[in-house]
Protein backbone atom coordinates (compact mmCIF):
# COMPACT_ATOMS: atom_id res chain seq x y z
CA UNK A 1 0.00 0.00 0.00
CA UNK A 2 1.43 3.38 -1.05
CA UNK A 3 2.02 5.83 1.78
CA UNK A 4 -0.16 8.93 1.29
CA UNK A 5 1.48 12.33 0.95
CA UNK A 6 0.41 15.29 3.08
CA UNK A 7 -1.56 17.10 0.36
CA UNK A 8 -3.54 13.90 -0.31
CA UNK A 9 -5.16 13.84 3.14
CA UNK A 10 -8.63 15.07 1.98
CA UNK A 11 -8.71 12.29 -0.63
CA UNK A 12 -7.62 9.64 1.88
CA UNK A 13 -10.26 10.71 4.40
CA UNK A 14 -13.01 10.60 1.75
CA UNK A 15 -11.91 7.13 0.63
CA UNK A 16 -12.03 5.95 4.23
CA UNK A 17 -15.54 7.37 4.60
CA UNK A 18 -16.70 5.48 1.50
CA UNK A 19 -15.23 2.23 2.86
CA UNK A 20 -16.98 2.80 6.19
CA UNK A 21 -20.34 3.19 4.44
CA UNK A 22 -19.73 0.05 2.38
CA UNK A 23 -18.96 -1.95 5.54
CA UNK A 24 -22.02 -0.50 7.28
CA UNK A 25 -24.22 -1.44 4.32
CA UNK A 26 -22.94 -5.03 4.52
CA UNK A 27 -23.22 -5.52 8.27
CA UNK A 28 -26.52 -3.65 8.79
CA UNK A 29 -28.07 -4.89 5.55
CA UNK A 30 -29.02 -1.33 4.61
CA UNK A 31 -29.14 0.06 1.06
CA UNK A 32 -26.67 2.95 1.02
CA UNK A 33 -25.86 2.83 -2.69
CA UNK A 34 -27.12 6.36 -3.28
CA UNK A 35 -24.97 7.85 -0.51
CA UNK A 36 -21.93 5.86 -1.67
CA UNK A 37 -22.42 6.98 -5.27
CA UNK A 38 -22.64 10.61 -4.14
CA UNK A 39 -19.37 10.31 -2.22
CA UNK A 40 -17.65 8.49 -5.12
CA UNK A 41 -18.64 11.32 -7.47
CA UNK A 42 -17.26 13.79 -4.94
CA UNK A 43 -14.05 11.73 -4.70
CA UNK A 44 -13.52 11.86 -8.47
CA UNK A 45 -14.02 15.63 -8.48
CA UNK A 46 -11.64 16.05 -5.55
CA UNK A 47 -8.94 13.92 -7.25
CA UNK A 48 -9.18 16.00 -10.41
CA UNK A 49 -9.10 19.20 -8.38
CA UNK A 50 -6.04 18.22 -6.32
CA UNK A 51 -3.98 16.24 -8.84
CA UNK A 52 -4.46 18.66 -11.73
CA UNK A 53 -3.48 21.73 -9.70
CA UNK A 54 -0.50 20.53 -7.69
CA UNK A 55 2.11 23.05 -6.60
CA UNK A 56 5.75 22.50 -7.63
CA UNK A 57 6.67 21.27 -4.14
CA UNK A 58 3.86 18.70 -4.25
CA UNK A 59 5.29 17.37 -7.52
CA UNK A 60 8.73 17.15 -5.93
CA UNK A 61 7.22 14.99 -3.20
CA UNK A 62 5.52 12.71 -5.74
CA UNK A 63 8.75 12.44 -7.78
CA UNK A 64 10.57 11.30 -4.62
CA UNK A 65 7.93 8.79 -3.52
CA UNK A 66 9.76 5.62 -2.33
CA UNK A 67 7.38 3.40 -4.29
CA UNK A 68 7.65 5.34 -7.54
CA UNK A 69 8.48 2.98 -10.45
CA UNK A 70 12.18 2.71 -11.27
CA UNK A 71 14.04 2.04 -14.50
CA UNK A 72 13.89 -1.73 -13.97
CA UNK A 73 10.14 -1.54 -13.31
CA UNK A 74 9.58 0.13 -16.67
CA UNK A 75 11.95 -2.26 -18.41
CA UNK A 76 9.98 -5.22 -17.07
CA UNK A 77 6.64 -3.75 -18.17
CA UNK A 78 7.60 -2.24 -21.54
CA UNK A 79 10.39 -4.34 -23.06
CA UNK A 80 10.92 -8.02 -23.73
CA UNK A 81 14.06 -10.19 -23.81
CA UNK A 82 16.05 -7.72 -21.70
CA UNK A 83 19.69 -8.73 -21.19
CA UNK A 84 21.53 -6.60 -18.63
CA UNK A 85 25.15 -5.79 -19.43
CA UNK A 86 27.66 -4.88 -16.74
CA UNK A 87 30.88 -2.99 -16.21
CA UNK A 88 32.73 -0.06 -17.77
CA UNK A 89 35.82 -2.12 -18.78
CA UNK A 90 37.99 0.27 -16.75
CA UNK A 91 37.19 -0.06 -13.05
CA UNK A 92 33.97 -1.74 -11.92
CA UNK A 93 30.24 -2.22 -12.40
CA UNK A 94 28.19 0.64 -10.97
CA UNK A 95 24.74 -0.60 -9.91
CA UNK A 96 23.37 2.96 -9.78
CA UNK A 97 23.07 2.71 -13.56
CA UNK A 98 21.56 -0.31 -15.30
CA UNK A 99 21.58 -0.99 -19.01
CA UNK A 100 21.45 -3.60 -21.67
CA UNK A 101 19.79 -4.88 -24.83
CA UNK A 102 16.05 -5.44 -25.17
CA UNK A 103 13.27 -5.78 -27.70
CA UNK A 104 10.70 -3.01 -28.13
CA UNK A 105 7.74 -3.82 -30.35
CA UNK A 106 9.93 -6.40 -32.10
CA UNK A 107 12.81 -3.95 -32.63
CA UNK A 108 16.21 -4.32 -30.89
CA UNK A 109 17.01 -1.33 -28.66
CA UNK A 110 19.52 -0.38 -25.99
CA UNK A 111 18.00 0.70 -22.66
CA UNK A 112 19.97 2.60 -20.00
CA UNK A 113 18.82 4.27 -16.81
CA UNK A 114 19.53 5.37 -13.27
CA UNK A 115 18.40 2.81 -10.72
CA UNK A 116 17.34 3.58 -7.17
CA UNK A 117 16.77 0.89 -4.61
CA UNK A 118 13.55 -0.17 -2.94
CA UNK A 119 14.39 -0.47 0.71
CA UNK A 120 17.47 0.46 2.70
CA UNK A 121 19.64 -2.52 1.75
CA UNK A 122 19.14 -2.12 -2.01
CA UNK A 123 19.48 1.66 -1.82
CA UNK A 124 22.88 1.26 -0.20
CA UNK A 125 23.91 -1.26 -2.86
CA UNK A 126 22.80 1.10 -5.62
CA UNK A 127 24.14 4.18 -3.83
CA UNK A 128 20.64 5.71 -3.76
CA UNK A 129 20.73 6.05 -7.57
CA UNK A 130 23.74 8.38 -7.54
CA UNK A 131 26.33 7.06 -10.04
CA UNK A 132 30.09 7.03 -9.77
CA UNK A 133 32.13 7.76 -12.94
CA UNK A 134 32.20 4.07 -13.83
CA UNK A 135 28.41 4.21 -14.11
CA UNK A 136 28.60 6.92 -16.76
CA UNK A 137 31.40 5.09 -18.54
CA UNK A 138 29.26 1.95 -18.59
CA UNK A 139 26.39 3.96 -20.06
CA UNK A 140 28.65 5.41 -22.75
CA UNK A 141 30.06 1.97 -23.59
CA UNK A 142 26.52 0.70 -24.17
CA UNK A 143 25.64 3.76 -26.25
CA UNK A 144 28.65 3.29 -28.54
CA UNK A 145 27.77 -0.39 -28.85
CA UNK A 146 24.21 0.59 -29.82
CA UNK A 147 25.59 2.98 -32.44
CA UNK A 148 27.79 0.22 -33.89
CA UNK A 149 24.81 -2.12 -34.31
CA UNK A 150 22.35 0.66 -35.26
CA UNK A 151 20.04 0.23 -32.27
CA UNK A 152 17.90 3.14 -30.96
CA UNK A 153 18.82 4.22 -27.43
CA UNK A 154 16.26 4.83 -24.67
CA UNK A 155 17.42 6.41 -21.40
CA UNK A 156 15.50 6.70 -18.12
CA UNK A 157 16.58 9.57 -15.89
CA UNK A 158 16.01 9.27 -12.14
CA UNK A 159 18.75 10.58 -9.88
CA UNK A 160 19.34 13.32 -7.32
CA UNK A 161 22.69 13.81 -9.05
CA UNK A 162 26.07 12.21 -9.60
CA UNK A 163 27.76 10.97 -6.43
CA UNK A 164 29.90 13.86 -5.04
CA UNK A 165 32.24 11.77 -2.87
CA UNK A 166 36.03 11.83 -2.80
CA UNK A 167 36.45 8.47 -4.55
CA UNK A 168 34.21 9.55 -7.43
CA UNK A 169 36.18 12.76 -7.89
CA UNK A 170 39.47 10.88 -7.80
CA UNK A 171 38.27 8.58 -10.59
CA UNK A 172 37.19 11.46 -12.82
CA UNK A 173 33.53 12.17 -12.14
CA UNK A 174 33.34 15.47 -14.01
CA UNK A 175 35.35 14.15 -16.96
CA UNK A 176 33.08 11.10 -17.27
CA UNK A 177 29.96 13.27 -17.33
CA UNK A 178 31.52 15.74 -19.80
CA UNK A 179 32.53 12.94 -22.15
CA UNK A 180 28.98 11.56 -22.11
CA UNK A 181 27.61 14.98 -23.07
CA UNK A 182 30.11 15.26 -25.91
CA UNK A 183 29.65 11.75 -27.27
CA UNK A 184 25.86 11.71 -26.97
CA UNK A 185 25.62 14.88 -29.05
CA UNK A 186 27.14 13.05 -32.02
CA UNK A 187 25.49 9.63 -31.84
CA UNK A 188 24.21 8.50 -35.24
CA UNK A 189 21.22 6.54 -33.92
CA UNK A 190 17.86 7.77 -32.55
CA UNK A 191 18.02 8.69 -28.86
CA UNK A 192 15.17 9.30 -26.42
CA UNK A 193 15.34 10.11 -22.72
CA UNK A 194 12.51 10.07 -20.19
CA UNK A 195 12.67 11.76 -16.78
CA UNK A 196 10.74 9.31 -14.60
CA UNK A 197 11.47 10.78 -11.15
CA UNK A 198 14.08 13.32 -10.11
CA UNK A 199 16.44 14.63 -12.74
CA UNK A 200 19.20 16.35 -10.80
CA UNK A 201 22.19 18.29 -12.10
CA UNK A 202 24.89 16.90 -14.43
CA UNK A 203 24.20 13.45 -13.09
CA UNK A 204 20.89 13.55 -14.95
CA UNK A 205 22.12 15.48 -17.98
CA UNK A 206 24.74 12.79 -18.64
CA UNK A 207 21.86 10.64 -19.97
CA UNK A 208 19.86 13.55 -21.36
CA UNK A 209 21.52 14.80 -24.56
CA UNK A 210 18.97 13.10 -26.81
CA UNK A 211 16.74 13.78 -29.80
CA UNK A 212 13.61 13.64 -27.66
CA UNK A 213 13.25 14.43 -23.96
CA UNK A 214 10.02 13.39 -22.24
CA UNK A 215 9.02 13.94 -18.63
CA UNK A 216 6.42 12.20 -16.54
CA UNK A 217 3.85 14.68 -15.34
CA UNK A 218 5.10 14.71 -11.72
CA UNK A 219 8.83 14.42 -12.33
CA UNK A 220 11.38 17.22 -11.91
CA UNK A 221 14.46 18.26 -13.91
CA UNK A 222 16.83 20.86 -12.52
CA UNK A 223 20.41 21.96 -12.01
CA UNK A 224 20.14 21.50 -8.23
CA UNK A 225 17.64 20.25 -5.66
CA UNK A 226 15.21 22.76 -4.10
CA UNK A 227 16.92 22.22 -0.73
CA UNK A 228 20.34 22.91 -2.27
CA UNK A 229 19.11 26.04 -4.01
CA UNK A 230 17.47 27.33 -0.83
CA UNK A 231 20.72 26.73 1.10
CA UNK A 232 22.71 28.75 -1.43
CA UNK A 233 20.23 31.55 -2.04
CA UNK A 234 18.80 32.06 1.43
CA UNK A 235 21.12 30.02 3.68
CA UNK A 236 18.08 28.03 4.78
CA UNK A 237 17.20 24.59 3.37
CA UNK A 238 13.76 24.78 5.00
CA UNK A 239 12.76 27.25 2.28
CA UNK A 240 12.85 24.45 -0.31
CA UNK A 241 9.18 24.94 -1.15
CA UNK A 242 9.77 28.54 -2.22
CA UNK A 243 12.87 27.47 -4.16
CA UNK A 244 10.90 24.80 -6.03
CA UNK A 245 8.43 27.44 -7.19
CA UNK A 246 11.14 29.88 -8.27
CA UNK A 247 13.36 27.35 -10.08
CA UNK A 248 10.81 26.24 -12.72
CA UNK A 249 11.67 22.56 -12.33
CA UNK A 250 8.35 20.92 -13.21
CA UNK A 251 7.46 19.29 -16.50
CA UNK A 252 4.89 21.99 -17.15
CA UNK A 253 7.46 24.79 -16.75
CA UNK A 254 10.09 23.03 -18.84
CA UNK A 255 7.66 22.27 -21.67
CA UNK A 256 6.67 25.92 -21.77
CA UNK A 257 10.33 26.93 -22.01
CA UNK A 258 11.01 24.43 -24.81
CA UNK A 259 13.52 22.36 -22.83
CA UNK A 260 11.51 19.13 -23.06
CA UNK A 261 9.39 17.80 -25.92
CA UNK A 262 6.45 16.03 -24.28
CA UNK A 263 4.76 15.68 -20.89
CA UNK A 264 3.64 12.10 -20.23
CA UNK A 265 0.45 12.10 -18.13
CA UNK A 266 0.45 10.05 -14.93
CA UNK A 267 -2.28 7.92 -13.46
CA UNK A 268 -4.30 9.80 -10.77
CA UNK A 269 -2.16 10.21 -7.66
CA UNK A 270 1.14 9.51 -9.38
CA UNK A 271 2.90 6.70 -11.23
CA UNK A 272 3.35 4.70 -8.01
CA UNK A 273 -0.41 4.13 -7.79
CA UNK A 274 -0.41 1.81 -10.82
CA UNK A 275 3.04 1.12 -12.33
CA UNK A 276 1.69 -1.31 -14.95
CA UNK A 277 -0.82 1.20 -16.31
CA UNK A 278 1.76 3.98 -16.18
CA UNK A 279 4.20 1.87 -18.18
CA UNK A 280 1.64 1.39 -20.95
CA UNK A 281 1.08 5.15 -21.16
CA UNK A 282 4.83 5.73 -21.36
CA UNK A 283 5.17 2.99 -23.97
CA UNK A 284 2.92 4.83 -26.41
CA UNK A 285 5.11 7.93 -26.25
CA UNK A 286 8.26 5.86 -26.82
CA UNK A 287 6.64 4.15 -29.77
CA UNK A 288 5.72 7.49 -31.34
CA UNK A 289 9.21 8.92 -30.76
CA UNK A 290 11.03 5.94 -32.24
CA UNK A 291 8.73 5.93 -35.29
CA UNK A 292 9.52 9.61 -35.90
CA UNK A 293 13.27 9.16 -35.56
CA UNK A 294 13.97 5.84 -37.27
CA UNK A 295 12.94 7.21 -40.68
CA UNK A 296 15.68 9.87 -40.48
CA UNK A 297 19.14 9.49 -41.97
CA UNK A 298 22.20 9.53 -39.69
CA UNK A 299 22.96 13.12 -40.72
CA UNK A 300 19.38 14.21 -40.04
CA UNK A 301 19.41 12.55 -36.60
CA UNK A 302 22.52 14.48 -35.58
CA UNK A 303 21.18 17.73 -37.06
CA UNK A 304 17.83 17.23 -35.31
CA UNK A 305 19.62 16.86 -31.97
CA UNK A 306 21.84 19.88 -32.68
CA UNK A 307 18.88 22.10 -33.55
CA UNK A 308 17.00 20.98 -30.45
CA UNK A 309 19.72 22.06 -28.02
CA UNK A 310 20.73 25.09 -30.09
CA UNK A 311 17.26 26.57 -29.63
CA UNK A 312 17.17 26.15 -25.84
CA UNK A 313 17.65 29.54 -24.24
CA UNK A 314 16.75 31.58 -27.32
CA UNK A 315 15.71 35.12 -26.50
CA UNK A 316 14.89 38.35 -28.30
CA UNK A 317 16.93 41.40 -27.41
CA UNK A 318 15.17 44.71 -27.86
CA UNK A 319 17.19 47.82 -28.49
CA UNK A 320 16.90 50.54 -25.87
CA UNK A 321 15.04 53.64 -27.07
List strands and helices in order, with pairings.
Layout: H1 9-28, H2 33-51, H3 56-63, H4 71-78, E1 80-84, E2 97-104, E3 107-114, H5 120-125, H6 133-148, E4 153-159, H7 166-170, H8 173-185, E5 191-200, H9 201-205, E6 212-216, E7 220-222, H10 226-234, H11 240-247, H12 251-256, E8 262-264, H13 275-294, H14 298-311
Parallel strand pairs: 3-4, 4-5, 5-6, 5-7, 6-8
Antiparallel strand pairs: 1-2, 2-3
Helix pairs in contact: 1-2, 4-13, 6-8, 10-11
Explained architecture:
The protein has helices spanning 9-28, 33-51, 56-63, 71-78, 120-125, 133-148, 166-170, 173-185, 201-205, 226-234, 240-247, 251-256, 275-294, 298-311; strands at 80-84, 97-104, 107-114, 153-159, 191-200, 212-216, 220-222, 262-264. By secondary structure, it is α/β, with parallel strands linked by helices. The chain has 2 domains: 6-47; 66-311, 2-enoyl-CoA Hydratase, Chain A, domain 1 (Alpha-Beta Complex), CATH 3.90.226. Strands 1, 2, 3, 4, 5, 6, 7 and 8 form an 8-stranded mixed β-sheet that branches. Helix 4 (71-78) crosses helix 13 (275-294) and helix 10 packs across helix 11 (240-247). The relative contact order is 0.12. It is found in: Cytoplasm.
Amino acid sequence: MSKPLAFEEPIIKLREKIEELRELAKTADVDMSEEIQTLEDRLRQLEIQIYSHMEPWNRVQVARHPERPTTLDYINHIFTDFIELHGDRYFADDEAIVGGIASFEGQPVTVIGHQRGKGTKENIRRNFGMPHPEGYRKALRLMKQAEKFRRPIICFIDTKGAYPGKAAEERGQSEAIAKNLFEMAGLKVPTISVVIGEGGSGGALALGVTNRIYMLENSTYSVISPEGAASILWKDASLAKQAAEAMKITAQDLKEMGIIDEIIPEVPGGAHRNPAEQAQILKEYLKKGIEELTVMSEEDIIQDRYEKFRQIGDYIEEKAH
